[in-house]
Amino acid sequence: MSEKLQQIINKQNKALSGEDIKIDEVIQLVGFIVGDEEFSVPILSIQEIIKPISWTRVPQTPTYILGVFNLRGSVIPLIDLRSRFGLETQKHTEETRFIVMKNNDDVAGFVIDRLTEAIRLPKKDVGPAPDTINEEESMIDGVGKQADRIITILKVGKLLERNF
Amino acid sequence: MDEFQEILQDFLVESFELIEQLDQDLVELESRPDDLDLLNRIFRVAHTIKGASSFLNFDVLTHLTHHMENLLNMARHGDLVIDADVMDVILESIDLMKALLVRIRDSGEDSGLEVNPCVVRLDAVANGTSLGETVPPPAGAAPTPTPAPVAPVAAVEEEPDYSGMSDEEVEAEIERLIAVRQAEDAAKRASHAPAAVEEEPDYSGMSDEEVEAEIERLIAVRQAEDAAKRSHKAEEPEAPKATPVPAPAPVAITPAPVAPPAAPKAAATPRKVEPKDDGENRSGAAVEQTIRVDVKRLDHLMNLIGELVLGKNRLIKINDDVEERYEGEAFLEELNQVVSIVSLVTTDLQIAVMKTRMLPIGKVFNKFPRMIRDLSRELNKKIELEITGEETELDKSIVEEIGDPLVHIIRNSCDHGVETPDVRVASGKEEGGTIQLKAYHEGNHIVIQIIDDGKGLDAEMLKMKSIEKGIITEKEADAMTEKEAFGLIFRPGFSTAAQVTSVSGRGVGMDVVKTNIEKLNGMIDIDSEVGKGTSMKLKIPLTLAIIQALLVGVQEEYYAIPLASVLETVRISKDEIYTVESRSVMRLRDEVLSLVHIGDIFEVERVFDNSEHAYVVVLGLAESKIGLIVDSLVGQEEIVIKSLGEYLKGIEGIAGATIRGDGGVTLIVDVAALMQMAKSVKSTVGQESAEAKGRIGTKNSASDYCVMIVDDSKTDRTIMRKSLEPMGITLIEANDGVEALNILKQGDHTFDGMLVDIEMPRMDGYTLAAEIKKYNKYKNLPLIAVTSRTGKADRMRGVESGMVEYITKPYSPEYLMSVVKRNIKFNEGL
C-alpha cells in the first residue's frame, strides 16, 4: 500500500515538475505570411497590429522603407517586409496588416500580407537557423517545426536595426 | 547692550554695502592695476572695516583686514605692482573677510575661521617673496556665483515652508540640511579652497542654545541658496547680475532682533520684477510670490501643449471643412468664434509655457570670465573676454545643452586661437588677445557668436592635418572649399595642437560641440582669416518643440519648411527660368538666384507638371540664398517637431516630422542640408514629365478609356453601366466615396472621368470631389454629378466642390453617354 502510494506521489511529482518545465519552455509567437512563407515573431515584441493607414514617404531611404505613419501622435517608420526580404511588392489587400514591433525603445511598423495565428511552440521544436547565412537570413532566430509546417522565427532586434 | 547692537547693526550694513561695491571694483582692478582711484576705494574698504572691527572687538577680522590694508597701502603707494599672483591673494583675503562678516552677522562673533594662512600669504606678497606653493585660485571673485555667502537669516518658525510641517518632519529636514552643509564644508576643506566661506563649527562644544542657533542659521543658508536658485529660474532678464549682487542684500539677524533698514537694500539692487526679494527683505516671511517647480513637470506641460497645438490645428481644419459644407448656416458663426478663441488661447498658453522655461543666456556666460582668467594664467597668455547680450533668453533645455559646447569652443579659442604675447607682438598685434562672446536674436533663432582675434584657421593646414590623420583623403581635400575645410575641426579625432595640453588637443572637444549643436537643431558657421582671427557662429532655435513653418506641396506630397529660413515666396512663369551651366537660375530683382526643384531633392516622382507657373520659396541661411521650386504653397502653420526616431534619424535634408491637422505626417525640411544637397542634384526644372506628355494619345481602343461609377444604389449603377456599355469603355464601380477614393489611390486604372452620386453613406459626393481635387494628379479629372437633387444651391455646391457637369435623375441613356463622351474627350474614330 505504502509502496503504491509512494509510486503515485512520485508520478504526480514527476507530472508536476514536468508540466512546470513545459510551461517554461513554450514560446508564444504570432505567425504571419509574407510572400509564400510563414514567419513569426515573439508575441511580447509586438506592440499592436493595425489595419493599413496612410503613410508619408521619406526620401533618401531604401525602397523597403515605405515612410512614416502616425500612430496616435507618434511618428513611426513603416517597413515593407516583402521588399525587405527581396520579394516583389504587391498592392495592399483587405488582409494586409501593419505589425508594430518594439525592441527596447526602437519601434517600427511592418507591412505583412496576412496574419495566421498565435502559436504556442515547445522550445524543443525550435531548431537553429540554417547554416547558409547571408544578410537576409541573419534575421532568422530559429526555425519552428509543427506537424504540417515550418515556421521561421525572426529576430525582432535585427528587423528593427537600421542597416543603411 | 542695545547700544552695542545698534552699532553692530550699522557696522554690518555699512560693511556689506562696501563689499558689494568691492566685487565690481576688484574685477576692474585686475584690468587696470594702476588705477589709483580704484585702489584707494578698495583700500578704504579694508581700512574702514579694520577700524570698526577693532572698535567692536572682532580680533580675527581686525587681524586679517590689517594685513590686507598693509598690502593695499603698498600698492597704493606704488611699492607693489598688482599682478595676477597678488590678485589671487587679495581675492582670497576678501572672500575670507566676507565670510567673517557673514559669521558676525549670524552669530555675533568672528571666531571659527582660520585666517592665519591667508595672513601669511598676504605678508609674503607684501614682502615681495614669491608664493612658493601653488595656491589654487580662490573661488571668490565677482563672477563666481557662490551662493554660500548669501545668508539672510530668518527664524525657522517665520518661514511659511516649514510651518506646515510636523515636528518629525522639521527634525528630519534639519538633519538633512546639516548633512548637506557638512558635506559641502568637508568638500571645501578637502580642497583647501581658501574660499571655504564658513568653516564647520564644532558642534560638540556647543551649548543647546548654540546648536539651536546653528540649526537656524543652516536652514537660513539653505533657504538663501534656494532663493538664489529660484531667482535664476524666475523668468526675468536681469537674473545673471542678480547672482552675485543680492548676496548681502537680504539681511536679517537672528541673535539681534533688530531688523536692518531694508529699503535702501532693495533700492541697491534695482530690478524689474523682483517681488520675492522685496518680500524677503521686508519681513523675511512675506507671502511667497514664486514657487519652485520640478523641471519634469514643466517638460510634461510642454508636451501637453504640443498635443494641444496639434489638436488645435486639427480643429481649425475641421472648422474649415464644416464651413465649406454648411455655408451660410447660423451656427457657423458661433463655431467660428469658439474655434478662434480656442486657437488664440492655445497660442497664448504655448507662449506662456515657453516663457516659464526661458532663461537668460547669462546663466551660462557667467562662468566664462573666471574660466578665461584661469586659462590665460595657465597658458601664459593675455586674454580678455567681452560679453554682450547676456540678457538674451532661450529655452531652459537649450541653456543646459549649450554650456558644454561653449566651454569647448572658448577653451579652443584660448588654446589654439589667441597667440602668446610675444607671438602677438611679433605679428604686430596688441599683446593681449580678445575673445568676444555675443548673444542676440535673429528671427526665431538665437545666435551665439564667439570671436577671437587670434591666429585664425589655415584651411590648407587643416586639410594636411586631416589627411595625415586619415580623416579625409587627398582627393576629398582637393575638392573642399575653405568653409568645408574649417568644418574639419569638428571631425572626431582631429586636433591641430602640436602638443596635448591640459586644456585641449586630445581631439574630443570640438566634435562634442558639433554633436550637441546638431542635437539642438542648431547650426555652426565658421569664418576665419589667417592672422586675423576666427568667428564661430552658433545659430540655435529658440525652442525645440514648436515652430512656425511654411507648408509646400509637390505632386501629392507636402513638406514643412521652417519659416525662420524663408525669406520670401514668389510666383514666376516658367519662361523666367534660365539655364546657366546646366543649373537653373532666375532673376530676382537685382540678383541671380539659383533654383532647385524640391522634387529633385526629395526624389519625388513627377507625373503631373503642366502648369505655366511655379512657386519659388526663397530660402536664406547665413550668407547663402537659394530658390526652391514647389508646386503649391499651402500656408503657414504652427507645427510640433517630432523626431523620426532612431531608425530613420539623420536622413539628409529632413529635420523631423510633424503631425498635421488631418492626422497625416508631414516631413520638416532641414534647410541647411537642403542647400548642401542642392549643389549636387541634377536639375530637371522645366522638363516636363514623360508621363504627362504621354497621357493623351495612348488611347488606342475604346476600352482604354476608363470611367468610374460611384453610387450606393446597385440599381442606379446598373442603369449607368447599361447606358455607357455601348461605348465599349472600361467601367469600374464603387459603392461610396471611401471606396472610390481607395480605388483611385491604388492607381490600378487611369481614370478619364467619374460619375458621382451625391447622396451616399460614409462619404458623400461633395466630400469625395473635394478629396479628389486635393491630388494634383486628379485636379483635371472630370467629375460628373448624377443626382436627384435639383435645387440651385445643390448645383452651386457641386460646382464649388469641383464637379464639371450636373445630371439630374432621371436621364436618358443617350444624354448620359453624350455628357460622358464630351467630358472624357472620347475619340469616336476608335
Determine the strand fraction of chain A and express it as a percent band.
Answer: 35-45%
Low-confidence spans of chain A: pLDDT under 50, at least 5 residues?
Answer: none
Provide the CATH superfamily of the largest domain in chain B.
Histidine kinase-like ATPase, C-terminal domain
| DSSP summary, beta strand count of chain B | 23
Residue fraction in strands of chain B? 15-25%
Number of domains of chain A: 1
Terminus-to-terminus distance of chain A: 71 Å
Per CATH, what is the topology of the largest domain in chain B?
Heat Shock Protein 90
**SS content category of chain A:** alpha+beta
- How many DSSP H or I helices of chain B? 30
Low-confidence stretches of chain B: 130-160, 193-200, 233-285, 502-507, 686-697
Total individual domains of chain B: 6
* Largest beta sheet: strand ordering of chain B: 10-14-15-13-12-11
Rounded to the nearest angstrom, the radius of gyration of chain B is: 37 Å
CATH class of the largest domain in chain B: Alpha Beta
Please give a structural write-up.
The complex is a heterodimer of chains A (164) and B (830). By secondary structure, chain A is an alpha+beta fold. Chain A has one domain: Beta Barrel (OB fold (Dihydrolipoamide Acetyltransferase, E2P)), CATH 2.40.50. Chain A is built from 3 helices and 11 strands, in the order H-E-E-E-E-E-H-E-E-E-E-E-E-H. In chain A, the strands form 2 sheets. Chain A has a 6-stranded mixed sheet. A 5-stranded mixed sheet of chain A has the order 3-6-7-5-4. The mean pLDDT of chain A is 82. Chain B has 830 residues and is α/β, with parallel strands linked by helices. Chain B is 46% helix and 17% strand. Chain B has a 6-stranded mixed sheet. A 5-stranded mixed sheet of chain B has the order 2-4-5-7-6. Chains A and B meet through strand 4, strand 5 and strand 7 of A and helix 23, strand 17 and strand 18 of B.
